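Hey Z.,

So I finally got round to the cytidine-5'-triphosphate thing we talked about over coffee. Here's the setup:
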Amino acid sequence: MLAQRRILLIIGGGIAAYKSLLLIRILRGAGAAVTPVMTRGAGEFVTPLSVSALAGEKVYDSLFDLTDEAEMGHIQLSRVADLIVVAPATANLMAQAATGQAGDLATTLLLATDTPVLMAPAMNVRMWQHPATQRNLATLRADGVTMVGPDEGDMACGEYGPGRMAEPEAILAAIEARLAKGPLTGRHVIVTSGPTHEPIDPVRYIANRSSGAQGTAIARSLAALGARVSFVTGPAAVPPPEGVEVIRVETAAQMHDAVMAALPAEACIMAAAVADWRVSNAGAQKMKKTGTGLPALEFAENPDILAAVSGLGDGRPRLVVGFAAETEDVTAHATAKRARKGCDWILANDVSDGTGIMGGTENAVTLITADGAEDWPRMGKGEVADRLAQRLAEALG
Ligand code: CTP
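And the result:
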C-alpha cells in the first residue's frame, strides 16, 4: 500500500514517543521508507539509535549540522517526502507550528515545506483542552494539517480523558488515507454524522435514534476515493471509520461551530440527525424531584447547519448535500426542503414504520438535484455511500 512512499517522521518530546518506534516498524512493513527527525525533547524518551535502527536510516536532529546541510539541506529534506507525520505532536510543537516558528530542525521543516502534514497530538488532557491548544489546533487545521486522534483513555500522567496519542495502527490508516490516490485526492470534504445530544441537566439529555451508520459509510467511501475527510460526529452507535479526521461533538451548537471551523472545503455532506431544538433552561445542577410539580422545559431553536453552510457567500463549498428523512410524499417534501435550505443536493429517504431504514443496514434513497429526482434501488448503506461518493467525484470534476 505504501510502496515507493517516503514518510518524514518528526518525533516530538513526549512519553508517547515510544509508540513512534512501533509506528516506524509498521510503516516499513507496509513498504514505506521513513526519514526520522527527532526534536531535542524526543531524545529524552527514545534514543536516536533505536529510531535509526528501526528506520534503517540516519536520524536528523540538528538544524546546524554541516554534513547534513552539505548532503541535502533541511529544505530539501522536507520536500522529498510524500507526507510529513508528526508523532507525537506535543502541545509545544503544535504551538510552534501554528505560529510559524522555526527554532529547530523539526519546526523549520514544517515551515519550509509544501508537503502535506499529518499530526498525531499527544499531551495531558488539560493541556489538550486548554483554549490555547484548541486555538492552535484550529489554526493548523485551517492551514490544511490533518489530525489523527488524540484518543480518550487512561494517560501516562495518571489522568483520564482525550490526549492519548492514537495507536500506531490508526496512524498508519490515516497515513494510507492521506496518500490514497483517487478521483478525490487533494479534495477536502466535511461530513456530519450521528445524533446530537441536547442537555436537560448535567446527567440527562434529549437525543434521537440515529446510529450514524450512513454518515460513517459516506466518510469511509470518500476517504477511499482519496478525499481528506473531516468527520464531525455526534455520539453515534457505530465507531468512526479509519483514515478520516474525527471531530467529536455532542450538541447541535457544537456541531455548527465544528463545521464552520473545519471550512474551507470543496464539499459538505450533512448526514447528521441534528436536534432541531435545545433546552434553553437546562439546569446547571441535576434537577431534583421537589414534590412541587413537574419541571417545565423550555426550548430554543438550534442553528440549522445545512442552511448556514448553504448560505455562505465566498466560503461556500462548491457542493452542499443534505438529507431528508420523510415518512410521506418523499420527493415533494425533499424537493421543497432543497429549495428552503439552499443546498445543491438532497438525499431523501423514507423512514416510515416498517421500512427498517432508521437504525438498519439498508437504505432506499431518492437523489434530488437541480435536474430533478432520481430513485435509487434499495441497497446497503455502504453501497449508497459508494454511489454518492462517486457522484460527488464526478460533480467536483
Ligand atoms: N440539519 C442541520 N442542522 C439542523 C437541522 C438539520 O444541518 N439544525 C440538516 C441535517 O443534517 C439534514 C437536513 O438538515 O441534512 C435535514 O433537515 P431537517 O429540516 O431536520 O429535516 P428533517 O429531519 O427531515 O425534518 P423536518 O422536515 O420534519 O424538519
